[in-house]
Protein backbone atom coordinates (compact mmCIF):
# COMPACT_ATOMS: atom_id res chain seq x y z
CA UNK A 1 0.00 0.00 0.00
CA UNK A 2 1.45 3.32 -1.02
CA UNK A 3 0.04 9.72 -1.08
CA UNK A 4 -0.33 14.43 -1.30
CA UNK A 5 0.57 18.16 -1.60
CA UNK A 6 3.77 16.32 -0.85
CA UNK A 7 3.55 14.14 2.19
CA UNK A 8 6.47 15.46 4.02
CA UNK A 9 5.08 18.96 3.71
CA UNK A 10 1.94 17.54 5.26
CA UNK A 11 4.05 15.98 7.98
CA UNK A 12 5.18 19.45 8.86
CA UNK A 13 8.83 18.78 8.06
CA UNK A 14 9.25 20.68 4.81
CA UNK A 15 10.91 23.69 6.41
CA UNK A 16 12.93 21.90 9.08
CA UNK A 17 16.49 20.56 9.10
CA UNK A 18 15.02 17.05 8.87
CA UNK A 19 14.15 17.88 5.27
CA UNK A 20 17.74 17.35 4.11
CA UNK A 21 19.11 13.96 3.19
CA UNK A 22 21.08 12.41 6.04
CA UNK A 23 22.32 9.20 4.41
CA UNK A 24 23.37 7.88 1.03
CA UNK A 25 22.69 4.27 0.05
CA UNK A 26 26.12 3.62 -1.41
CA UNK A 27 25.93 -0.06 -2.29
CA UNK A 28 23.60 -3.07 -2.30
CA UNK A 29 24.51 -6.76 -2.13
CA UNK A 30 22.43 -9.92 -2.05
CA UNK A 31 22.93 -13.65 -2.05
CA UNK A 32 20.96 -16.84 -1.38
CA UNK A 33 22.43 -19.72 0.64
CA UNK A 34 21.83 -23.45 0.23
CA UNK A 35 19.05 -23.36 2.84
CA UNK A 36 17.11 -20.90 0.70
CA UNK A 37 17.65 -17.84 2.87
CA UNK A 38 18.22 -14.65 0.90
CA UNK A 39 20.17 -11.81 2.50
CA UNK A 40 20.09 -8.25 1.15
CA UNK A 41 22.61 -5.76 2.56
CA UNK A 42 22.35 -2.02 1.97
CA UNK A 43 25.45 0.03 2.81
CA UNK A 44 24.75 3.51 4.16
CA UNK A 45 26.79 6.63 4.76
CA UNK A 46 24.91 7.30 8.03
CA UNK A 47 22.44 5.52 10.34
CA UNK A 48 18.77 5.39 9.34
CA UNK A 49 15.52 4.34 10.99
CA UNK A 50 13.87 2.03 8.44
CA UNK A 51 10.27 0.93 8.17
CA UNK A 52 9.89 -2.55 6.64
CA UNK A 53 6.58 -4.19 5.79
CA UNK A 54 5.03 -6.66 3.38
CA UNK A 55 2.17 -6.31 0.90
CA UNK A 56 0.09 -8.96 -0.85
CA UNK A 57 -1.68 -9.26 -4.20
CA UNK A 58 0.96 -9.14 -5.57
CA UNK A 59 3.57 -10.02 -2.96
CA UNK A 60 5.98 -7.17 -2.26
CA UNK A 61 8.43 -6.16 0.43
CA UNK A 62 8.60 -2.41 1.08
CA UNK A 63 11.50 -0.63 2.80
CA UNK A 64 11.06 3.05 3.64
CA UNK A 65 14.24 4.99 4.49
CA UNK A 66 13.50 8.53 5.73
CA UNK A 67 16.34 10.94 5.07
CA UNK A 68 18.12 8.59 2.66
CA UNK A 69 18.89 8.83 -1.04
CA UNK A 70 19.88 6.03 -3.43
CA UNK A 71 23.20 6.75 -5.09
CA UNK A 72 22.78 4.30 -7.96
CA UNK A 73 20.37 1.84 -9.55
CA UNK A 74 20.44 -0.60 -6.67
CA UNK A 75 18.43 -3.26 -8.46
CA UNK A 76 21.25 -3.79 -10.96
CA UNK A 77 23.67 -4.57 -8.10
CA UNK A 78 21.65 -7.47 -6.71
CA UNK A 79 21.68 -11.16 -7.61
CA UNK A 80 18.14 -12.52 -7.60
CA UNK A 81 18.77 -16.00 -9.02
CA UNK A 82 17.39 -18.68 -6.72
CA UNK A 83 15.72 -16.11 -4.48
CA UNK A 84 12.06 -15.13 -4.07
CA UNK A 85 12.96 -11.63 -5.32
CA UNK A 86 11.95 -10.97 -8.91
CA UNK A 87 13.02 -7.33 -9.12
CA UNK A 88 13.70 -4.27 -7.01
CA UNK A 89 12.46 -0.74 -7.67
CA UNK A 90 13.48 2.49 -5.98
CA UNK A 91 11.72 5.81 -5.73
CA UNK A 92 12.38 9.09 -3.95
CA UNK A 93 9.87 11.60 -2.69
CA UNK A 94 10.59 14.61 -0.49
CA UNK A 95 13.73 13.22 1.13
CA UNK A 96 12.56 9.69 1.59
CA UNK A 97 13.64 6.66 -0.41
CA UNK A 98 11.27 3.72 -0.86
CA UNK A 99 12.59 0.35 -2.01
CA UNK A 100 10.04 -2.12 -3.34
CA UNK A 101 11.10 -5.75 -3.78
CA UNK A 102 8.74 -7.64 -6.07
CA UNK A 103 8.39 -11.18 -4.73
CA UNK A 104 7.40 -14.44 -6.38
CA UNK A 105 5.91 -15.78 -3.14
CA UNK A 106 5.18 -14.76 0.46
CA UNK A 107 8.25 -14.63 2.69
CA UNK A 108 9.21 -14.22 6.32
CA UNK A 109 11.38 -11.14 6.86
CA UNK A 110 13.79 -10.12 9.58
CA UNK A 111 15.74 -6.87 9.44
CA UNK A 112 18.38 -5.26 11.60
CA UNK A 113 21.04 -2.57 11.52
CA UNK A 114 24.79 -3.05 11.75
CA UNK A 115 26.90 -0.23 13.14
CA UNK A 116 30.24 0.70 11.51
CA UNK A 117 32.83 -1.95 12.33
CA UNK A 118 36.38 -2.64 11.09
CA UNK A 119 36.07 -0.34 8.11
CA UNK A 120 32.53 -1.39 7.23
CA UNK A 121 29.91 1.41 7.06
CA UNK A 122 26.42 1.47 8.55
CA UNK A 123 24.38 -1.34 7.04
CA UNK A 124 20.75 -2.40 6.84
CA UNK A 125 20.35 -6.17 6.58
CA UNK A 126 17.20 -7.89 5.28
CA UNK A 127 16.86 -11.67 5.67
CA UNK A 128 14.15 -13.32 3.58
CA UNK A 129 13.10 -16.94 4.08
CA UNK A 130 10.40 -18.92 2.32
CA UNK A 131 7.23 -18.65 4.38
CA UNK A 132 6.16 -22.17 3.51
CA UNK A 133 9.38 -23.91 4.56
CA UNK A 134 9.33 -23.58 8.32
CA UNK A 135 11.26 -20.36 8.29
CA UNK A 136 12.82 -19.32 11.56
CA UNK A 137 13.92 -15.98 12.86
CA UNK A 138 17.40 -14.80 12.02
CA UNK A 139 19.87 -15.40 14.85
CA UNK A 140 21.26 -12.19 16.34
CA UNK A 141 24.79 -11.23 15.40
CA UNK A 142 27.15 -10.28 18.22
CA UNK A 143 28.40 -7.12 16.52
CA UNK A 144 24.94 -5.66 15.94
CA UNK A 145 24.25 -2.42 17.81
CA UNK A 146 20.95 -0.63 17.42
CA UNK A 147 20.91 3.18 17.45
CA UNK A 148 18.65 4.89 19.98
CA UNK A 149 15.77 5.87 17.67
CA UNK A 150 15.29 2.27 16.50
CA UNK A 151 14.85 0.98 20.05
CA UNK A 152 11.76 3.14 20.43
CA UNK A 153 10.30 2.31 17.03
CA UNK A 154 6.63 1.29 16.95
CA UNK A 155 5.89 -2.42 16.88
CA UNK A 156 3.91 -2.06 13.64
CA UNK A 157 4.90 0.10 10.68
CA UNK A 158 1.28 1.03 10.05
CA UNK A 159 -0.68 0.22 6.94
CA UNK A 160 -1.08 2.38 3.85
CA UNK A 161 -4.21 4.38 3.09
CA UNK A 162 -5.89 2.69 0.12
CA UNK A 163 -7.49 4.95 -2.47
CA UNK A 164 -9.40 3.16 -5.24
CA UNK A 165 -9.47 5.22 -8.43
CA UNK A 166 -12.34 4.46 -10.79
CA UNK A 167 -12.13 5.50 -14.43
CA UNK A 168 -15.75 5.93 -15.47
CA UNK A 169 -17.36 4.02 -18.35
CA UNK A 170 -15.11 1.81 -20.55
CA UNK A 171 -15.43 -0.93 -23.14
CA UNK A 172 -18.84 -0.90 -24.81
CA UNK A 173 -19.77 2.21 -22.80
CA UNK A 174 -17.87 5.22 -24.23
CA UNK A 175 -19.50 7.72 -21.87
CA UNK A 176 -20.00 11.23 -23.17
CA UNK A 177 -18.64 12.07 -26.62
CA UNK A 178 -16.91 15.38 -27.26
CA UNK A 179 -17.65 17.88 -29.98
CA UNK A 180 -14.66 16.54 -31.92
CA UNK A 181 -15.32 12.87 -31.21
CA UNK A 182 -13.27 12.40 -28.03
CA UNK A 183 -14.58 9.60 -25.82
CA UNK A 184 -15.01 10.28 -22.13
CA UNK A 185 -13.82 6.74 -21.29
CA UNK A 186 -10.38 7.42 -22.82
CA UNK A 187 -9.80 10.79 -21.16
CA UNK A 188 -10.79 9.62 -17.68
CA UNK A 189 -8.70 6.45 -17.94
CA UNK A 190 -5.61 8.55 -18.67
CA UNK A 191 -6.27 10.74 -15.63
CA UNK A 192 -7.07 7.73 -13.40
CA UNK A 193 -3.82 6.01 -14.37
CA UNK A 194 -1.84 9.14 -13.52
CA UNK A 195 -3.60 9.46 -10.18
CA UNK A 196 -2.95 5.82 -9.28
CA UNK A 197 0.76 6.19 -10.13
CA UNK A 198 1.05 9.40 -8.13
CA UNK A 199 -0.59 7.80 -5.10
CA UNK A 200 1.76 4.82 -5.33
CA UNK A 201 4.73 7.18 -5.31
CA UNK A 202 3.83 8.81 -2.00
CA UNK A 203 4.73 7.12 1.30
CA UNK A 204 1.70 6.06 3.25
CA UNK A 205 -0.68 5.72 0.31
CA UNK A 206 -1.59 3.00 -2.16
CA UNK A 207 -3.52 3.65 -5.33
CA UNK A 208 -5.64 0.95 -6.96
CA UNK A 209 -7.58 1.05 -10.24
CA UNK A 210 -10.98 -0.47 -10.90
CA UNK A 211 -10.04 -0.81 -14.56
CA UNK A 212 -6.59 -0.57 -16.12
CA UNK A 213 -7.65 -0.66 -19.77
CA UNK A 214 -10.65 -0.22 -22.04
CA UNK A 215 -12.79 -2.69 -20.11
CA UNK A 216 -16.47 -2.49 -19.27
CA UNK A 217 -17.35 -2.85 -15.59
CA UNK A 218 -20.80 -2.67 -14.10
CA UNK A 219 -21.36 -0.09 -11.40
CA UNK A 220 -21.74 -2.84 -8.80
CA UNK A 221 -18.41 -4.36 -9.84
CA UNK A 222 -16.67 -1.04 -9.27
CA UNK A 223 -17.93 -0.66 -5.71
CA UNK A 224 -17.30 -4.35 -5.04
CA UNK A 225 -13.66 -3.92 -6.08
CA UNK A 226 -13.30 -1.07 -3.61
CA UNK A 227 -14.80 -3.14 -0.81
CA UNK A 228 -12.67 -6.20 -1.64
CA UNK A 229 -9.57 -3.98 -1.41
CA UNK A 230 -10.73 -2.57 1.96
CA UNK A 231 -10.54 0.89 0.44
CA UNK A 232 -10.27 3.93 2.67
CA UNK A 233 -11.57 6.13 -0.15
CA UNK A 234 -13.17 5.72 -3.56
CA UNK A 235 -12.91 8.40 -6.25
CA UNK A 236 -14.63 8.02 -9.62
CA UNK A 237 -13.28 10.12 -12.52
CA UNK A 238 -15.66 11.38 -15.20
CA UNK A 239 -16.05 14.09 -17.84
CA UNK A 240 -19.28 16.08 -17.87
CA UNK A 241 -21.77 16.64 -20.68
CA UNK A 242 -24.53 19.15 -21.33
CA UNK A 243 -26.86 20.12 -24.15
CA UNK A 244 -25.64 23.70 -23.75
CA UNK A 245 -22.29 23.61 -25.56
CA UNK A 246 -20.92 26.58 -23.64
CA UNK A 247 -21.16 24.76 -20.28
CA UNK A 248 -17.70 24.35 -18.77
CA UNK A 249 -15.83 23.75 -15.55
CA UNK A 250 -15.14 21.02 -13.02
CA UNK A 251 -17.61 19.66 -10.46
CA UNK A 252 -17.33 17.44 -7.39
CA UNK A 253 -20.15 15.17 -6.26
CA UNK A 254 -20.78 13.35 -3.00
CA UNK A 255 -23.70 11.07 -2.23
CA UNK A 256 -27.08 12.57 -1.52
CA UNK A 257 -29.33 10.46 0.69
CA UNK A 258 -32.32 12.62 -0.06
CA UNK A 259 -31.96 13.47 -3.72
CA UNK A 260 -29.96 15.87 -5.86
CA UNK A 261 -28.87 19.19 -4.41
CA UNK A 262 -29.22 21.38 -7.50
CA UNK A 263 -30.90 21.49 -10.88
CA UNK A 264 -27.63 20.38 -12.48
CA UNK A 265 -27.40 17.41 -10.14
CA UNK A 266 -31.05 16.54 -10.77
CA UNK A 267 -30.50 16.68 -14.51
CA UNK A 268 -27.46 14.42 -14.22
CA UNK A 269 -29.40 12.02 -12.04
CA UNK A 270 -32.27 11.78 -14.56
CA UNK A 271 -30.38 11.94 -17.83
CA UNK A 272 -26.67 11.40 -18.41
CA UNK A 273 -26.09 9.28 -15.34
CA UNK A 274 -29.45 7.58 -15.02
CA UNK A 275 -27.72 4.20 -15.22
CA UNK A 276 -25.63 5.14 -12.19
CA UNK A 277 -28.67 5.19 -9.91
CA UNK A 278 -29.90 2.25 -7.86
CA UNK A 279 -30.50 0.82 -4.42
CA UNK A 280 -27.93 0.43 -1.65
CA UNK A 281 -25.34 -2.26 -2.29
CA UNK A 282 -26.91 -5.61 -1.51
CA UNK A 283 -23.57 -7.01 -0.34
CA UNK A 284 -23.40 -4.95 2.84
CA UNK A 285 -23.20 -7.20 5.91
CA UNK A 286 -26.60 -6.12 7.24
CA UNK A 287 -28.77 -8.60 5.42
CA UNK A 288 -29.82 -10.55 8.50
CA UNK A 289 -30.56 -7.54 10.70
CA UNK A 290 -34.03 -6.46 11.72
CA UNK A 291 -35.39 -4.16 8.97
CA UNK A 292 -35.68 -1.15 11.27
CA UNK A 293 -32.26 -1.78 12.80
CA UNK A 294 -30.81 -2.20 9.32
CA UNK A 295 -32.28 1.14 8.30
CA UNK A 296 -30.90 2.90 11.37
CA UNK A 297 -27.43 1.37 11.00
CA UNK A 298 -27.35 2.21 7.31
CA UNK A 299 -28.36 5.80 8.02
CA UNK A 300 -25.66 6.13 10.70
CA UNK A 301 -22.99 4.63 8.46
CA UNK A 302 -23.96 6.81 5.54
CA UNK A 303 -24.02 9.89 7.75
CA UNK A 304 -20.44 9.31 8.90
CA UNK A 305 -19.26 8.38 5.41
CA UNK A 306 -21.01 11.35 3.84
CA UNK A 307 -19.35 13.74 6.29
CA UNK A 308 -15.93 12.41 5.30
CA UNK A 309 -16.85 12.51 1.62
CA UNK A 310 -17.93 16.15 1.71
CA UNK A 311 -14.89 17.12 3.80
CA UNK A 312 -12.59 15.55 1.21
CA UNK A 313 -14.68 17.00 -1.60
CA UNK A 314 -14.26 20.52 -0.25
CA UNK A 315 -10.48 20.11 -0.37
CA UNK A 316 -10.48 18.60 -3.86
CA UNK A 317 -12.80 21.35 -5.11
CA UNK A 318 -10.49 24.03 -3.74
CA UNK A 319 -7.50 22.43 -5.48
CA UNK A 320 -9.44 22.02 -8.74
CA UNK A 321 -10.27 25.71 -8.64
CA UNK A 322 -6.55 26.46 -8.82
CA UNK A 323 -6.13 24.67 -12.16
CA UNK A 324 -9.53 24.85 -13.85
CA UNK A 325 -12.74 26.82 -13.86
CA UNK A 326 -15.37 25.48 -11.45
CA UNK A 327 -18.85 24.77 -12.74
CA UNK A 328 -20.25 24.98 -9.21
CA UNK A 329 -18.52 26.61 -6.21
CA UNK A 330 -19.44 23.86 -3.75
CA UNK A 331 -19.61 20.08 -3.50
CA UNK A 332 -22.80 18.89 -5.20
CA UNK A 333 -24.76 15.85 -4.10
CA UNK A 334 -26.51 13.20 -6.20
CA UNK A 335 -27.56 9.58 -5.68
CA UNK A 336 -24.94 7.88 -7.88
CA UNK A 337 -24.57 4.13 -7.34
CA UNK A 338 -20.76 4.37 -7.27
CA UNK A 339 -21.08 6.69 -4.26
CA UNK A 340 -23.51 4.51 -2.31
CA UNK A 341 -21.13 2.33 -0.29
CA UNK A 342 -22.07 3.32 3.27
CA UNK A 343 -18.71 2.22 4.64
CA UNK A 344 -16.38 3.89 2.09
CA UNK A 345 -16.15 7.69 1.69
CA UNK A 346 -16.53 8.44 -2.01
CA UNK A 347 -16.41 11.26 -4.53
CA UNK A 348 -17.31 11.57 -8.19
CA UNK A 349 -15.12 14.09 -9.99
CA UNK A 350 -16.39 15.66 -13.20
CA UNK A 351 -13.12 16.95 -14.64
CA UNK A 352 -14.74 19.22 -17.22
CA UNK A 353 -17.38 19.40 -19.95
CA UNK A 354 -16.22 17.25 -22.84
CA UNK A 355 -19.15 18.62 -24.87
CA UNK A 356 -17.49 22.06 -24.80
CA UNK A 357 -15.03 22.15 -27.73
CA UNK A 358 -12.40 24.21 -25.90
CA UNK A 359 -12.62 22.13 -22.75
CA UNK A 360 -12.50 18.95 -24.81
CA UNK A 361 -9.10 20.02 -26.16
CA UNK A 362 -7.84 20.74 -22.65
CA UNK A 363 -9.07 17.37 -21.37
CA UNK A 364 -7.06 15.67 -24.13
CA UNK A 365 -3.91 17.63 -23.23
CA UNK A 366 -1.51 15.54 -21.06
CA UNK A 367 -0.30 18.70 -19.28
CA UNK A 368 -3.85 19.68 -18.32
CA UNK A 369 -4.54 16.08 -17.30
CA UNK A 370 -1.51 16.22 -14.99
CA UNK A 371 -2.79 19.43 -13.40
CA UNK A 372 -6.18 17.86 -12.76
CA UNK A 373 -4.47 14.78 -11.33
CA UNK A 374 -2.39 16.88 -8.95
CA UNK A 375 -5.48 18.76 -7.80
CA UNK A 376 -7.34 15.56 -6.92
CA UNK A 377 -4.22 14.12 -5.29
CA UNK A 378 -3.53 17.19 -3.17
CA UNK A 379 -7.12 17.41 -2.03
CA UNK A 380 -7.28 13.78 -0.95
CA UNK A 381 -3.96 13.84 0.85
CA UNK A 382 -4.83 17.08 2.58
CA UNK A 383 -8.01 15.42 3.82
CA UNK A 384 -6.18 12.38 5.17
CA UNK A 385 -3.53 14.51 6.83
CA UNK A 386 -6.32 15.93 8.99
CA UNK A 387 -8.24 12.66 9.37
CA UNK A 388 -5.77 9.78 9.16
CA UNK A 389 -7.44 6.39 9.75
CA UNK A 390 -6.18 4.71 12.96
CA UNK A 391 -3.41 2.20 12.43
CA UNK A 392 -2.14 3.77 9.21
CA UNK A 393 1.43 4.82 8.56
CA UNK A 394 0.33 8.41 8.15
CA UNK A 395 -1.43 8.41 11.54
CA UNK A 396 1.76 7.12 13.18
CA UNK A 397 3.88 9.73 11.44
CA UNK A 398 1.58 12.49 12.63
CA UNK A 399 1.99 11.24 16.21
CA UNK A 400 5.75 11.05 15.79
CA UNK A 401 5.79 14.50 14.21
CA UNK A 402 4.56 16.08 17.44
CA UNK A 403 7.45 14.59 19.41
CA UNK A 404 9.95 15.45 16.68
CA UNK A 405 8.70 19.02 16.40
CA UNK A 406 8.78 19.54 20.18
CA UNK A 407 12.29 18.13 20.41
CA UNK A 408 13.47 20.35 17.57
CA UNK A 409 11.90 23.43 19.15
CA UNK A 410 13.59 22.67 22.48
CA UNK A 411 16.90 22.22 20.71
CA UNK A 412 16.42 25.47 18.81
CA UNK A 413 15.64 27.37 22.02
CA UNK A 414 18.70 25.90 23.69
CA UNK A 415 20.91 26.89 20.79
CA UNK A 416 19.48 30.40 20.54
CA UNK A 417 19.71 31.16 24.29
CA UNK A 418 22.84 33.33 24.75
CA UNK A 419 25.72 31.74 26.60
CA UNK A 420 27.81 33.57 29.20
CA UNK A 421 31.41 34.44 28.29
CA UNK A 422 34.22 32.17 29.47
CA UNK A 423 35.95 34.90 31.49
CA UNK A 424 35.05 38.10 33.36
CA UNK A 425 37.28 41.14 33.85
CA UNK A 426 37.20 42.39 37.43
CA UNK A 427 36.24 46.02 37.95
CA UNK A 428 37.69 48.35 40.61
CA UNK A 429 36.45 47.46 44.12
CA UNK A 430 34.37 44.40 43.13
CA UNK A 431 34.15 41.40 45.42
CA UNK A 432 33.50 37.79 44.47
CA UNK A 433 30.06 37.97 46.11
CA UNK A 434 29.14 41.05 44.08
CA UNK A 435 30.26 39.39 40.86
CA UNK A 436 28.31 36.24 41.78
CA UNK A 437 25.11 38.24 42.23
CA UNK A 438 25.62 40.39 39.12
CA UNK A 439 26.25 37.41 36.85
CA UNK A 440 23.70 35.08 38.44
CA UNK A 441 26.35 32.47 39.19
CA UNK A 442 26.41 30.63 42.55
CA UNK A 443 29.26 31.87 44.72
CA UNK A 444 30.52 28.34 45.31
CA UNK A 445 30.76 27.79 41.56
CA UNK A 446 32.89 30.92 41.19
CA UNK A 447 35.15 29.81 44.05
CA UNK A 448 35.54 26.37 42.50
CA UNK A 449 36.71 27.96 39.26
CA UNK A 450 38.82 30.67 40.95
CA UNK A 451 40.37 29.85 44.35
CA UNK A 452 40.74 33.42 45.67
CA UNK A 453 41.79 34.02 49.27
CA UNK A 454 42.24 37.77 49.48
CA UNK A 455 39.58 40.43 48.99
CA UNK A 456 39.08 42.87 47.37
CA UNK A 457 40.08 41.34 44.02
CA UNK A 458 42.64 42.96 41.76
CA UNK A 459 41.06 45.29 39.17
CA UNK A 460 41.79 44.27 35.58
CA UNK A 461 42.37 40.63 36.46
CA UNK A 462 40.12 37.95 34.92
CA UNK A 463 37.94 35.31 36.50
CA UNK A 464 37.11 32.01 34.85
CA UNK A 465 33.36 31.50 34.59
CA UNK A 466 31.60 28.12 34.56
CA UNK A 467 29.78 27.27 31.32
CA UNK A 468 26.08 28.07 31.21
CA UNK A 469 23.43 30.46 29.90
CA UNK A 470 23.83 34.19 30.30
CA UNK A 471 21.48 35.13 33.16
CA UNK A 472 22.34 38.82 33.28
CA UNK A 473 19.46 39.75 30.99
CA UNK A 474 21.73 41.84 28.76
Automatic annotation (TrEMBL):
Superkingdom assignment: Bacteria
GO molecular-function terms, A-Z: N-acetylmuramoyl-L-alanine amidase activity
Taxonomic path: Bacteria, Pseudomonadati, Pseudomonadota, Gammaproteobacteria, Oceanospirillales
Organism: Modicisalibacter xianhensis
Protein name: N-acetylmuramoyl-L-alanine amidase
Annotated Pfam families: Amidase_3, AMIN
Catalytic activity of the protein: Hydrolyzes the link between N-acetylmuramoyl residues and L-amino acid residues in certain cell-wall glycopeptides
Gene Ontology CC annotations of this record: outer membrane-bounded periplasmic space
InterPro entries referenced in this protein's UniProt entry, alphabetically: AMIN_dom, Cro/C1-type_HTH, LysM_dom_sf, MurNAc-LAA_cat, N-acetylmuramoyl_amidase_3
Keywords assigned by UniProt, alphabetized: Hydrolase, Signal
PROSITE patterns: HTH_CROC1
EC number from the UniProt entry: 3.5.1.28
Amino acid sequence: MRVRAAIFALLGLATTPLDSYAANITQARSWTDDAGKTRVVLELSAPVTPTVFELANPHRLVVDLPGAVAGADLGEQLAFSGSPIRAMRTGEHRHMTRLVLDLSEPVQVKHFLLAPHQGQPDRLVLDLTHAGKGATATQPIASVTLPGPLQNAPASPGRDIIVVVDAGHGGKDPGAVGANGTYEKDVVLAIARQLERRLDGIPGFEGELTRKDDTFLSLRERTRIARDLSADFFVSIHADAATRKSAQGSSIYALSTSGASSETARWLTRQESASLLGEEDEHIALAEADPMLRSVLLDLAMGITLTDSISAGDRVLKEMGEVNRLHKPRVEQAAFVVLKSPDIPSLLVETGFITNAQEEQRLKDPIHQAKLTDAILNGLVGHFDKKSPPGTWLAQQKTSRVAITNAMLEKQVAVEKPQRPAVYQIQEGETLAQISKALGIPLDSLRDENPVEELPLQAGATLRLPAGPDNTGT
